[in-house]
Each structure stands twice: as C-alpha cells, then as structure tokens.
Design a protein that fits this description.
heterotrimer; A alpha/beta (272); B alpha+beta (373); C mainly alpha (222); A: 272 residues; alpha/beta; D-Maltodextrin-Binding Protein, domain 2; 48% helix; globular; C: 222 residues
C-alpha cells in the first residue's frame, strides 16, 4: 500500500514542481509588470512623418512642464489597427483624418479630435542619383522613359497616408503604371525616407518634415510637390478614452504656440 | 523455512515468442542456453521487471513479483534483483564506488560507503574505487557491474551474457570469480549465454531455449546426456558432463585419479590437489565401445557399461549410444556400420573406452592460482 | 544605446527560458523514452514553429487574443490590460516560437542515454524520480544547457513577432532588435550601430558556447 502511495506521490510531485515553477514565473512577471506600468510615462502613438518634430515637442514639454511622454512612431494604418487590438496608447497623432475617424466611430476616442498640422510631400534625389528633381516630376518622367529608374521609394499606400498621397501624385502625372514595377514601399514614411536618402533608390516621394532636418537635407536635393496635386494631408489627432491627465496636457500643448513654432520650422502648415 | 527459490512461468505469442517454465533454488546456477534471438535476454528482463509478457508468473521466495492472472506487477526498482548487463551498463558519470553505492539505497546512509568499498574489495577492485568507467578495462568494468549487482543484496542474481564483451583471458578469470562467489552466496543465480563453455563451467542446471520455447530443462548431467537435441549437437557436439572428485594425485606418473558416479577415471595431471571437486566433460566422439575387454592399449580408462538407448538421427552420420555406467550416463558416438558389426542393442553389456587426454577437466581453484586480471 | 530595450531583451530571454525549461525537460524526456501512437505527429508539431513565419504566429496571436476577441476581452477583464502589447504577450509568443529550440536538444540529450543504463538504474533500486534526478539528468545536462542557450539567443533575435504582438512600446515591448529598426527610421544610425554590434556580440558568444557544449555532449564516454 505504501508503495502505491509512493509512486503516486512521485507523479504528483513532478507535476507540482512544474506547475509551481510556472506559477512562480507568472506571478513574478505579473508583479514586475504591475510595478513597471505604474512607473512608466504614458505612451503616445504618432505617424512616422512626425519623427523629428514631435520628438522635439516632447522634449520641450518635458522642459517646460516637467512631465514626460513616450512616443511610438509608426504608420497611421498600423497604429490604428494596434489601437483597435488593445494597444495601450493614450493619444494618437495621425497623418490623415480617415484613420482617427475610424477610431472615433469605433468609440475608442474621447471625441473627434482636432487637425493639428497639414503636411507636404517632396520629391527627393540623393547625391549622385541621375534623377533631376522638379515639382512637375518632369525629371522623373524623363528618367522613366530612358529606363534608368532602378528603384523609387514611397510609403505603402495601404497603411501610410503619405504613401496614398504619393500614389495620387504619380497617377495624376500618368506615371503610376510605368513606375509601379520599380516601386519600393516602406511600411512607414520614415522607412521610405530611409530608402530614398541612403542611395538604395534613385529617389522617392517622402514627407517634407523628414527632409528639413539638417542631417538629411545634406544628403541630396528635393522639390516641394504642389498641394493641388493630391488631397491635402490634413493631420488629425485624438485623445483615446484611457488618456490620463499628463496626456491631456500634452494634447493641449501640441496646439499651443511653442509646439506650433516647431511644426512650422519642420515644414508643416498649422491651422488657425 | 521456505527455500527462497525463484519460480518463473512466461507465455506469449508475440512480438517476442515465449514459452518457458522453470524453477531455480538458492545455490543453484541455472544457465539459459540457446542461439541468438531465442529470447534469453527477454526472460532475464522479465524476471527483473523490465519487460512484461502477456502471460507471466514470477515468484521469488514468498514474494510474487509478477502475476498477470491477478494483475500483480512489482516495478523493477522494488525487486531485489542483481542484474549484470551484457555491456555492463555502468553509470558513466559516477566513479566505481559511486556506481556501487547507487545500489545500496536500502541501507542507512552511514553504512553505504563502507559497504560499497567492501563490495569492490570482494571483486578485487578496491584500488580502483575512484576511477570512472571510461578509465577501466572491460574486465574491470564487468567486475564493477558485478559488485553493483551484489551490493543490492539481491534475492536473485541475473547475469546477461556476462562474458561476451570480455576478452578470452579475462573471461576465464571472471568465470572463476563467479564460481567462487556463488559458493558463498545463497541465492539462485540465472545465467544467460550462447557460449557452451560458460554452461559447462558454471551451471548446475540448464534450460535449453529455441525460439522462445524451453525445449529441455534439468540438471546439467542429465541434459547433457540426452541425445535428442539436434541443434545442440550441431552447435556444440554431444558429450557427457558430470561432477567428480580428485581422489589421488599420481605425481610420478603425471596422472590424477577422479571418482564419479560411474567409477574411476585417470586423467592427465594438472595443478590440482586431492579432494578438489571438478567438472568433467567427455565428448561423445572420444568414447570407443568394445564387446571384449581390450589389452595392450595406450588408453587408461576402461569402464563397464550397459546400453540404455541407441539413437539414430538421419540428419547425422553418427549414431548416439546412451550407456549406463555405474550411477552415471555416458554418451558415445559411433558409425552405423559399427552398430551393425558389433550388434549393439539395448541392454547389451559393453566396455567403454576413454582416452585420458580426451577428458576435459574444469576446476575453479586451479586457475585462481594465477595472477588475476 | 537604449538600455531599457536591452533590459527588455534580456528579461524576455530569461523569462522564456524559465517557462520553457521545465516543460522542455519533461516533454523532451518523454519523447526520448516513450513510444506511443502519433509520436511522429507530435514531433512534427514540435518542429512547426521552426518553419512557421513569425508573422503567421503574430497574426494568430493578435486575432485570438486582441482586444476585439472574446479571449482577449476576458484576459483584459482578469488582468487589467490586453495580452498583446504587453510584456506577457511577448513572453507568450516567445515561448511558442521557441518550443523546438528547447525540446529538440533536450530530447537528443536524453536519447543519448543508453536504455541499458536506465534499466540498470531501476535494477539498482532507484525510484523513477531518483533515476531521473541522479542518473538521467546529469547525463542529459549538456542537452538541457544547449536548449537553454539556443532559446536565449533565438529570443534575442526575434523581430517579426515582437513587432506585431508587442507594438514597440518603450521599456515594455521594445526589444533591442526592434530598437535598432526604430533608430534607423529616425535616421539615428549611430545608436542603431551600437545596438547592432551588441546583439552581434551576444549572438557570437552564444554560438561559441553551444559549440563548446556540443563537444561535451558525451564527456563520460571513453
């Protein structure tokens, strides 16, 4: 009888050991998580075209108000999907209006938000590229006809509003079908800018706000695309329902004078 | 007080066919003998609890280890068996001492080390206690395996082809070792082998196995005098095997006198003292039969015998004649022509002639005088 | 150098090992020692994460546990936040992705033990637990260590699943590999370079360790 109990005890003991290991790990990790969540600054989602401008605004916010926010950059489409899947962002600065409106319709935001900036597209060619940049895209057209466009960078139109605008521009100039096989699509406008400015492509249609940074501007030449060539890049931001007071303050700060100066410096127009 | 015997009964049709039934008492050495693939190792593993045939009944003394009828099965770690594997199966990460200590879990912690050291001394490996198996020779590893099996203080000792992985000279010494151990141990010893020499050297009883079936079982002298085991005949050659005692040593003539159930034999002298027990084997081919007592011959041994049976097997050229000599049974192999010429028939009295050089002797003490490996 | 990202990466590696090692030892040993119907299928399933594109894993995790799914909502009600976009979510995804890296070396480690040695341990009177702890585990130990090291290295290198399931949240789900990607998009090649070099060094050291370990797999054999 004792023997039977002993063998049963072995099996139970092993299972207990495994379960307790897992339980310990789980409890520990959960605890870790709870602690870290409480201490972490709030997280904000922002479209990739704001990479330079918003980082600076956030720094200023910290200097002026003594509070910190963490910014996560990505394409507006991807961020929207993540927010819908439960990502813990408290505020969302998109590159268009459509994506934040989706969130508002889904009831995830405090309200419909505000337009905080209007963006511009540029055509960029890195130094040494055969591409001649001009606002009518004639240089691009000539290069295409000569068959010398190896790769041309834009953002993915499905997830990035700047990519959508780029597609519109190319279509309007009758270049879309010819250039399509040569396109390399970044999944954010920042990645497209990477491709365009580092010589991996003959050039690209990227955000004005990304080339105004001195380090980037030196890498080549660019020309502003007229706003009439595409739907205006009106960029809307929203507060998510879970926003905490710090983020509420930041939301107001972005609409304030200090932030607007930074936005204008980085090539945006700001609404009155 | 019941004799702590081992009684085994195994039956199954597949995947490994088995059909055996035997008993082994303490002090006995049962050799399970058969060609490779006949199921010998399976029987041993069944006794140890490492294999579960579909029908089995295994009892050791008063304990029932396996009984498929009642659903009893004692797992291997609760059977007091000592199992020596063919390939030693030593624990590679432990020293020789550590290996032996593993088997002494049934003793209090304070005793384990000293008992293990005693075991190693018993197999003359005391000096190698802190060596790892990889630093030991084949024979030494086998002795550690033996020590480990004995350390368990087993009710049954099982040896699985214990000498097959060991070279010839080491084999002789190991056989002697086991033979002397068995005299001091009081447990049944089951030995599995395909080497007939092991059987002759060590066994008191034999179980012949063929395709998992026990075709013959009994004391070695009885079994060896049976003419009706054709594959044994093919594999080994028939002969008579029996125990004898050295009654006199004629050092001047270079002969020793052996007394056995059938009388007295003279064999060439070896390093044997008087009163030693020896095991004798006489191949059947070495026996000459005569109707009249011969004179002027070189051979020393002429015994009187009576024909018990004449065994003709068309598969073989020779005819086996079973003879009663005193209290023993001897086998002689002669041609069919000789049967006819001498008119050999059952009940006939014949003279049994044996050359002294044809007598195979085995004595455990004889070889132990030489330096051990 | 993003120290928070390094910390997240290291915690993720350590956490994955903590979860998978006990499981791996138990299951790897089972596969090594037992024969059973459907074993081939089980072994194949264990290998699946090796060939599964990380995005497939990420997709299914998001769909099954995202805020729009019933399971995800239940989790959030229980714990207070969603499973994706949290460190736990990463741990979960990482554990699934690393199953073959843990189980296969451990299985090989236990398979390398001759069955005779296991039987001998039983015949020496060792209970199944003693057999495991005193004989099998010491002999299979190099396999276990290899599994742990491989898992750690693989976790450090995970990118696709981490990005999809984690969401690149600083200090929580932004691992070193994601941080490199992040810095490159911000035109900060210098930081990206430092972190890439760090990851490379860790990977090389890990590979060296596994190579040295695999030489030791049978240290006790003559």
């Amino acid at each position: 009888m004792r023997q039977i109990l002993r063998d049963a005890a072995f099996t139970i003991r092993v299972r207990l050991l495994k379960c307790s290991c897992l339980a310990l790990v789980a409890v520990w990790l959960l605890g870790l998580q709870e602690v870290s969540l409480a201490q972490r600054p709030p997280t904000i989602a922002a479209a990739a075209n704001l990479n330079v401008a918003l980082t600076e605004i956030a720094k200023q916010f910290e200097r002026d108000r003594g509070m910190r926010v963490d910014v996560v950059f990505g394409s507006s489409g991807t961020l929207t999907r993540q927010i819908r899947d439960g990502a813990p962002f408290e505020m969302f600065l998109a590159a268009d209006e459509e994506f934040p409106n989706q969130l508002t319709s889904a009831g995830l935001t405090r309200d419909a938000g505000v337009v905080y900036a209007i963006g511009r597209l540029v055509i960029f060619a890195p130094t040494g590229s055969p591409l001649v940049v001009d606002e009518r895209l004639q240089g691009l057209s000539r290069l295409l006809q000569a068959g010398r466009v190896t790769r041309f960078a834009i953002a993915n139109p499905d997830v990035a509003p700047y990519g959508r605008a780029a597609e519109t521009v190319l279509r309007n100039h009758g270049l879309w079908d010819a250039i399509r096989p040569r396109l390399v699509m970044g999944d954010t406008i920042a990645q497209a800018a990477q491709f365009a400015t580092t010589g991996n492509a003959v050039g690209g249609l990227i955000a004005y706000s990304l080339v105004t940074e001195p380090g980037v501007a030196d890498r080549g030449r660019y020309a502003l695309i007229p706003q009439t060539d595409h739907a205006p890049l009106r960029q809307r931001m929203v507060l998510l329902k879970r926003a905490t007071p710090i983020v509420e303050q930041f939301y107001a700060y972005v609409q304030g004078a200090a932030a607007r100066t930074v936005l204008i410096k980085n090539g945006y127009e700001v609404p009155q | 007080m019941r004799d702590p015997a081992l009684s085994v009964s195994l039956r199954q049709s597949g995947p490994i066919p088995l059909d055996v039934e035997f008993t082994c008492h303490s002090g006995e050495v049962l050799a399970i003998f058969g060609p490779s693939g006949s199921g010998k190792t399976t029987i041993l593993r069944s006794i140890a609890g490492l294999y579960r045939p579909s029908h089995a009944s295994i009892r050791s003394g008063a304990e029932t280890w396996t009984d498929t009828d009642t659903g009893t099965f004692i797992p291997p770690h609760r059977r007091t068996v000592g199992l020596v594997f063919q390939e030693y199966a030593l624990f590679p990460h432990l020293t020789a001492l550590g290996n032996v200590m593993t088997a002494i879990g049934h003793r209090p912690r304070t005793e384990r080390r000293s008992r293990a050291e005693a075991m190693l001394n018993l197999v003359r490996l005391g000096a190698h206690a802190s060596k790892r198996p990889r630093d030991l020779s084949g024979g030494e590893r086998q002795r550690v395996a033996l020590a480990r099996a004995l350390a368990r203080e087993p009710a049954v000792l099982l040896l699985d082809e214990p000498f097959s992985a060991v070279d010839r000279s080491a084999r002789r010494r190991l056989q002697n070792e086991i033979d002397s151990l068995r005299r001091t141990l009081d447990v049944p010893l089951v030995l599995v082998t395909h080497d007939f020499e092991d059987v002759v050297r060590l066994a008191s009883h034999v179980l012949m196995l063929q395709h998992g079936r026990g075709v013959a079982c009994g004391p070695i002298s009885t079994l060896m005098s049976r003419p009706d085991l054709p594959w044994l005949r093919e594999a080994v050659g028939l002969g008579s095997v029996f125990d004898a005692t050295v009654t006199q040593v004629h050092a001047d003539r270079g002969l020793v006198e052996l007394t056995f159930g059938g009388g007295i034999l003279l064999a060439p002298a070896r390093n044997i003292a008087a009163k030693t027990a020896v095991r004798v084997r006489i191949p059947a081919r070495e026996i000459v039969l005569a109707t009249t007592a011969p004179t002027g011959l070189s051979l020393h041994n002429v015994l009187a015998g009576a024909v018990m049976a004449v065994h003709v097997d068309t598969a073989f050229e020779g005819v086996i004649v079973q003879l009663a000599v005193g209290n023993s049974v001897l086998l002689a192999e002669v041609t069919r022509d000789a049967i006819g010429r001498l008119g050999i028939g059952v009940g006939q009295r014949l003279h049994v002639l044996i050359k002294s050089v044809s007598i195979e002797l085995q004595a455990s003490d004889a070889d132990s005088a030489e330096e051990g490996h | 150098m993003d120290w928070a990202a390094l910390r997240v990466s290291l915690w993720l590696g350590a956490g994955t090992i903590a979860i998978l090692l006990p499981l791996g030892v138990w299951f790897g040993r089972l596969l090594a020692v037992r024969e059973f119907k459907g074993k081939l299928l089980v072994e194949a399933l264990v290998t699946v994460p090796l060939v599964l594109p990380p995005t497939v894993l990420g997709f299914y995790l998001l769909v099954t546990f995202g805020a729009r799914s019933p399971l995800g909502q239940a989790f959030e009600a229980l714990v207070g936040h969603s499973l994706p976009f949290s460190f736990q979510g990463l741990l979960f995804a990482s554990a699934i992705a690393n199953v073959p890296f843990v189980i296969q070396p451990i299985q090989r480690g236990f398979e390398a033990i001759p069955s005779d040695v296991r039987d001998a341990a039983a015949s020496c009177g060792l209970t199944p637990w003693q057999r495991f702890a005193r004989i099998e585990l010491p002999l299979a130990w190099p396999g276990v260590l290899t599994g742990a090291v491989l898992t750690f290295a693989h976790t450090l290198g995970e990118f696709g699943v981490v990005l999809m399931v984690g969401g690149n949240l600083p200090g929580q789900t932004r691992t070193l590999s994601v941080a490199i990607y992040d810095r490159m998009q911000a035109f900060d090649d210098r930081s990206a370079g430092v972190m890439a070099a760090t990851l490379l060094t860790i990977s090389v050291v890990t590979l060296m360790t596994t190579t040295a370990l695999s030489r030791r797999v049978n240290p006790h054999r003559a």
